[in-house]
Amino acid sequence: LSGLDPAQPYFQGTPIEVRLDKSDADFVDVIHTDSAPTIPNLGFGISPAIGHIDFYPNGGEQMPGCGKNPVSQIVDLDGIWEGTRDFVACNHLRSYKYYSDSIIYPDGFLGYPCASYDLFQSGNCFPCPEEGCPNMGHYADKFKDKIKKDFLKLYLNTGEARDFPLWRYKVTVTLSGRSKVKGYVNVALYGSDGNTKQYQITKGTLKPDNTYTAYIDAEVNVGKVTKVKFLWNNNWINPTFPKLGAATITVEVGQNR
């Protein structure tokens, strides 16, 4: 039984006979997309974990792409009717859009077990544990026999618009060069199943021999990593023409470590 942002008003905090609960089926998975408090935030969705596994994409309260200005949202790609609905209840309705995308991407929407969204964002819950991560949506039940806890809270990030799934990588860059310089470092991943755009790993003071780490949520699952592209720039003309390279770049895949 899959709960798509089960309702909060009149249901949160009620007895389990009244609301969705893990006792309602052999396996209950829940997607929380609008779980901010109803007052003052108008959250339509329930916030406590109530299933066998509970997914909180983007933290479960504010979905990317839902903060678009009203005009662009109402004249949506899917037509005025869907755009108007999205303007009124965009976060709430993201749950079914993620679910429908999950049917097409059996390897997408990995939920990372974590105590909070902040910890997930800072990389504390990366990579997936040995038993793997469940997939939010249609294929969540593949994880049915691996659950060890009473409640399992899972976090992940999604895109702003279709296609919604993102794949998480940890990228670590050790710099080489002679002198420190201000600027930014970008890395793109290339693999057997596709390539990513450039992602910023760090910006500010770049010191040779220092190591910089970032967690990126890529729009494609690159498969087996075949090469990485390293770029740095200081955004201004420096008469000393500083040189900077990458001594090493390490890429860790969240899914299979």
Task: Label this structure with key terms.
257 residues; alpha/beta; Rossmann fold; Lipoxygenase-1; 2 domains; four-stranded antiparallel beta sheet; 12 strands
Number of strands: 12
Distance between the termini: 30 Å
Mean pLDDT: 91
* CATH secondary-structure class of the largest domain: Alpha Beta
The third-level CATH topology of the largest domain is Rossmann fold
Structural class: alpha/beta
Q: For the CA atoms, what is the radius of gyration?
A: 21 Å
CATH architecture of the largest domain: 3-Layer(aba) Sandwich
| Percent range of helical residues | 10-25%
Q: What best-fitting shape do the alpha-carbon axes yield?
A: elongated
What's a concise summary of this model?
By secondary structure, this protein is of the alpha/beta class. It has 4 helices and 12 strands; from the N terminus they run ββαβααβαββββββββ.
